[in-house]
TrEMBL record:
Keyword check for Zinc: no
Pfam families noted in UniProt: Pyr_redox_3
GO MF annotation terms: flavin adenine dinucleotide binding; monooxygenase activity
InterPro entries the record matches: Auxin_biosynth/cation_transpt, FAD/NAD-bd_sf
Name of this protein: Pyridine nucleotide-disulfide oxidoreductase
Highest rank taxon of the organism: Bacteria
Keyword Oxidoreductase recorded: yes
Keywords, in A-Z order: Oxidoreductase
Length: 349
């Protein structure tokens, strides 16, 4: 099978890319590993509602309709994505899992081979790939001494469902990002909690306006241009004290403790040598870019990241990464989809 371009992933970034590629007269094959529309939104915890979610932007050509602010984002956003796929007639094939992307030969202007399992089995030959696989499928679990001896529960936020599951248990929340503080607040309303982070949290004063957004994007762009791993969003923006978090602060929930040094069967050993019992450790420690299928291309450099030229991989203009680095936000993903389509149309002539 041959295709003008293959789009891997059908979340916000992938759908945007598909839309713009078709508008430029190209015929993308769009592959999505999920069973249905919605990308990572399908897996968000039920308590993350449309009035508490951290920003959802319209897909190109079809605005997000009005929704009940109390509706779980795991319902509203996948429904919007499904309507968008139908309205735009996007040719998404699912579930289709990409095993690998490799070069057909040594010709840098030649074809790429995309190996696929699932609803589409086999290999697709193409001249360009847009990778939009995001991060949700690759949660990051730090390693600490004694972790395997813990007799309680350990889970990553990727597996979190609801606070009520922890009633009567003491929960240690690990991580300094937005998900950590949101879930810390939520869980603390049904049971006892403690919050630990490696670094002192940085709270942002004032609103996160457009100028602040541009500054944050510029900082991440500079890192990926140099081939360094992208920074987390919160490391650039800081944490914003929403009304809910201010209320949590008043309840004493946001008292931060330095990271523990070891895990023991019934709790954790703190940096000062004291012991803190725990029934649950919730790792709100972020995600990494899901790029394992691109490993045959050897895109990573000495800095540990992938050097980027806009949306294209520096030195490999046939491969575009969107939803990566500065385009990991929903508005950034839309812009990256448009940019990738423009550059691929020029590449293919």
């Amino acid at each position: 099978m041959r295709a003008d371009v293959v789009v891997i992933g059908a979340g916000q970034a992938g759908l945007s890319a598909g839309h713009h590629l078709i508008r430029r007269g190209l015929a993308p094959v769009m592959l999505d590993a999920e069973d249905g529309p919605g990308g990572a939104w399908r897996h968000r915890w039920r308590s993350l509602r449309m009035n508490t979610v951290n920003g959802i932007h319209d897909l190109p050509g079809m605005p997000l309709p009005e929704v009940d602010p109390a509706e779980p984002s795991a319902e509203a956003v996948p429904r919007y994505f499904a309507d968008y796929e139908r309205h735009q007639q996007l040719p998404v094939i699912r579930p289709a899992r990409v095993r690998s992307v490799r070069r057909a030969d040594g010709d840098r202007a030649g074809e790429l081979l995309v190996d696929v399992d699932g609803a589409l089995e086999g290999t697709i030959a193409t001249r360009a790939v847009v990778n939009a696989t995001g991060t949700w499928s690759k949660p990051f679990w730090p390693r600490y001494p004694g972790q395997e001896t813990f007799t309680g529960r350990q889970l990553h936020v990727a597996g979190y469902e609801r606070a009520e599951d922890f009633a009567g248990e003491h929960v240690i929340v690990v991580g300094g990002g937005i998900s950590a503080v949101q879930l810390l607040d939520e869980i603390s309303q049904v049971t006892s909690t403690a919050w630990v982070t490696r670094r002192e949290p940085v709270w942002r004063e004032g609103d996160f306006d457009q100028e602040a957004g541009r500054e944050a994007v510029a900082m991440v762009e500079e890192r990926v241009r140099r081939g360094l791993p992208p920074l987390s969003v919160v490391s650039v923006t800081g944490l914003i004290k929403t009304p809910a978090l201010r209320a949590a602060e008043e309840r004493g929930v946001l008292e931060r403790h330095p990271m523990f040094t070891a895990i023991e069967p019934t709790g954790v050993r703190m940096a000062d040598g004291s012991f803190r019992p725990a029934d649950v450790i919730l790792w709100a420690t972020g995600f990494r870019a899901a790029l394992d299928h691109l490993r045959p291309l050897r895109l990573r450099g000495r800095g540990g990241g992938i050097a980027m030229d806009g949306t294209a991989v520096a030195g490999e203009p046939r491969v575009h990464l969107i939803g990566y680095g500065p385009s990991s936000s929903t508005i950034g993903a839309n812009r990256a989809g448009r940019e990738a389509a423009r550059r691929i149309a020029r590449l293919l002539g």
